[in-house]
Amino acid sequence: MFQTIDDIGSGKRVLVRLDLNSPVEDGIVKDNRRFARHARTVRELVAAGHRVVVMAHQGRPGRDTFVSLDQHADLLAEYVETPIAFVDDVHGEAALDAIRSLDAGEVLMLENVRMCDDELPEQPPAAHADSEFVRTLAPEFDCYVDDAYSVAHRSHASIVGFPCVLPAYAGRVMVAEYEANTSIANREFDGPVTMVLGGAKATDVIDVMSALDDEIDHYLLGGIVGELFLRAAGHDVGYDVGDGELYDHQWADNEGRIRELLADRGDRITLPTDLAYEDGDDRTEIPVDGVVKERPLLDVGSRTVERYGDVIEDSAAVFVKGALGVFEDERFADGTVGILETIATTDCFSVIGGGDTSRAIELYGLDEDYFSHVSIAGGAYVRALTGQPLPGVEVLVE
Prior knowledge:
Distance between the termini: 9 Å
Number of strands: 17
Number of helices: 16
Radius of gyration: 23 Å
Number of domains: 2
Largest sheet: 6 strands, parallel
CATH architecture of the largest domain: 3-Layer(aba) Sandwich
CATH topology of the largest domain: Rossmann fold
């Protein structure tokens, strides 16, 4: 596989890449589970007497979430339980001076790496290794640690450039995510393997289903993709109503693939039998056979949750990608939360993937310890499930 931080030794100058990308509201960076997860790697590097310099990103240029990392340094410091200095520079003289002044056991965070012009272009590792960004920073360090699995699908300079010119190691988050998210392909389970698939990005879900065949015994569908499959099965759902723009273009893009999957694997695909919609201030459920879609359908119904729960309880492994409803509204959280609660009380190997689904765990007070792994990755999780290469992992292996 790859080397980990256990292989570094002690007393090194370490450049570590984290993913601390977070929600931003009115200029305030919100805490999320990424700080707590990555803190373990930073704590262990500090305990080993390394000089630790953190690289991370926030947002993209032109977006409201594209802000400085000064708040991130303070949030991470709370979890690391060590002061983290911040420098408003990525690889200029101010950054170099701050790096060179570090003592053993101290931590410095550089400015948002996406403020560096060399960071964002999708280029091969060798091209990034030859960038001014990498050529300037790399000589200041003995090694590089990548803990940012959730951006491992990006071929950006801070992800793939430094491993070409420095000894490279995986942090704790990188190792845990890699092992969990490749377990469908790499592990054998003593019993049925089930995937719960939902969310708003139907193409991602269909890609996962297309890539995984013999490995999966049951697919339980909800969310937008669930409606699209119901539409293919002849029900009056799976299209936009009012001002919505979620269904019709995804149906146009994926109709052929959906029909093919239903024809080839219909015995393994379970669709909702009832759905929920907003009726005044209340939640109302209706069987799919009786639906005439005149308003948005916001969750799977209670009978569907019960049927899906029966499948999960008989499974040896359960993988989740995407929410089954609009769980942010408590009235329409029954599907997503009900399924998560069933998984939590079932003796099975479980991986909960995708930012939305893992957010539901936090929002409704579920205990992460009841799941084998709760991923903080989105795009990288999907690519791992579909067998696509992850440049950030490939460079570590190489």
